[in-house]
Hints:
With 443 residues, this protein is of the alpha+beta class.
Amino acid sequence: MPEAKNNVKGTRDILPNETGGFIRIESVLRTIASLYSYHELRTPVLEYSDVFARGVGEGSDIVRKEMYTFLDKGERSVTMRPEFTAGIIRSVIQNKLYATNELPLKIFYSGPAFRYERPQLGRYRQFTQFGVESVGHNSVLNDFEVISMAYSMLYSLGLTSVKVKINSLGDNETRTKYREALKGYFLPHLDNMCPDCKQRYEINPLRILDCKVPEDHVLAIGAPKINDFLSETSKERFEALKSALDDAAIPYEVDDQLVRGLDYYSEVVFEFDYTSLKGKNYGALGGGGHYSNLMKELGGPDLPGVGFSFGIERLYDVLKDDELIKEDDDTLDIYMMPLGNEVRLYALEIANKLRLAGYSVDYCFDDVKLGNMFKRASKKRAKFAVIIGENEYNNHKLVVKDLAKEEQNEIEEDNIVCYFDAIFNQECKCKCSDDYCTDEQCK
Ligand code: AMP
């Protein structure tokens, strides 16, 4: 026998008893994004590699070592998106969405992203992101709206004590001065720093502050703080944001170590941190920030943007730990129980009739005893059982059992949909003049 294969290292199967939870999370996020007037943009998983090299930045860990990049058969270098923002902005520019819509252009996205990272708790090589981009308006209130939307998304999922960490990376002038200060600070230690940091020193010394190597991390804690370099304009902008967050009673803390791993950010950056009731921290649930140069960098007009992204796997894991999501929230309306081979096809026809009327119906394919069928119905959390034996088949009368109330009724086959319509309070679709029917026109 051939050896069974496992999934690719760092990937995760989302099993049928988990998908309901994933869909629920996404549905809450989508609903709130729509309430803020955001619309979905779907970009391809594959982009030309240059989009990320120029967008995310050559200095970022993502571009330097985490991208799934390959040459296609036409010798073009393509990359499976490691994040969405660069691809979204590429599409906004290519389709001139900034020219044909009122600004800010409000976009949300959802789908898989790929990074060749070391797999660990909350860190996969394929993961799912949901995020937004608000493009084309520089108002600090736009930054505020995006942060408060992210906060209310987490709150609506039941995460009411999320820590919002914010920092300002300032404008271009701020970062130029800060970069010089960091270089001055790290230079005497450079020989003892990790090889990655040596490269970071040359390409973008801000990235050194992200380093997880313990010795470099300690060094980074003592580094100059960007807050001391903020230009007057950036300072005012950051103060205005904090004051809006205070007014909205959104709890936050300023974290001067927060620089985020993507090169395109400027001004405010933020992250949402949460430790589940079980004490597990899967890493930031999401994060984002303001960006000024990305559109220009990708060949578009000089417009700013602000956005964030959540990791759906991390959201699912904390919500499950905190019992805010059940493994399987699904129930079944009706479980069909055919008794004997003669009635199997007939029972399937009834099942299909009920499905066409909008009821979820499962069907027992095995020739097992009635008691066993009830156990199966209970495991599937079915609300009703429809039992069909030879008598029922011959008389065109079906036995319907309410599994919660333990009550049983005999229903004419022709009235079965109508019967359930009455029970589930659905508008009746037939003209049956039956007692069960709730549709006044029927009577
Ligand atoms: P980033 O694009 O790095 O700002 O990440 C935004 C969010 O995506 C993070 O806060 C995580 O929730 C999620 N995320 C990023 N990388 C991974 C990963 N390797 N595995 C799982 N989730 C991730």
